[in-house]
Amino acid sequence: MGTTLGKPFVGLFQETEPRIVLFGLPGTGKSSILHKLKTGEVLSTNMPTVGFVYVVDTKDRERMEETKSFLHMVMDEIQGNVPDNVAVLVYANKHEVPGAMTAYEISNELDLASLRQKNWQRNWHVQSSCALSGDGLHEGLDWLLKNAERM
Ligand SMILES: Nc1nc2c(ncn2[C@@H]2O[C@H](COP(=O)(O)OP(=O)(O)O)[C@@H](O)[C@H]2O)c(=O)[nH]1
Ligand SMILES: [Mg+2]
Known about the structure:
Blueprint: H1 6-12, E1 20-24, H2 30-37, E2 51-57, H3 64-78, E3 88-93, H4 103-109, H5 112-118, E4 124-129, H6 137-149
Parallel strand pairs: 1-2, 2-3, 3-4
Bound molecules: guanosine-5'-diphosphate and magnesium ion.
Guanosine-5'-diphosphate (GDP) binds near residues 27 and 94.
């Protein structure tokens, strides 16, 4: 993982095709989410906008600090390069695992409050999800797309 993510991330926003950027630490469930959503019509919409989807493993308490740092680093890199009204959805994934952290705990652990303070115009939402059953995946994307409609 490099220290400068600006270029690749900024490049994503110079594309004319709309897209949603899914990111997160290894093993958080990104591939599983994409696999589960593969037939989803939401991903093929031609809505002319983008959103971010950050995937967090809610059972992995040991990597909470790392996942927070990674998120804040990416958000710092995109600030000023990505329109402020492009929203960020956080999937609090693996929520069905006993002892997993709640969406509320995840927003505290990620320190979303300070991200909101730094960029009060950017919308945030934490959605509990299970990529295996698909629980919460569409609710999360619905929120992201509703936000996009208002842009
Ligand atoms: N219990 C549980 N396991 C999951 C969930 N999502 C992904 N996994 C598992 O977590 C591991 C990593 O998932 P993967 O999609 O490969 O993560 P990626 O590295 O972010 O793409 C795999 O063993 C998945 O089966 C979930 O919601 N609940
Ligand atoms: Mg993967």
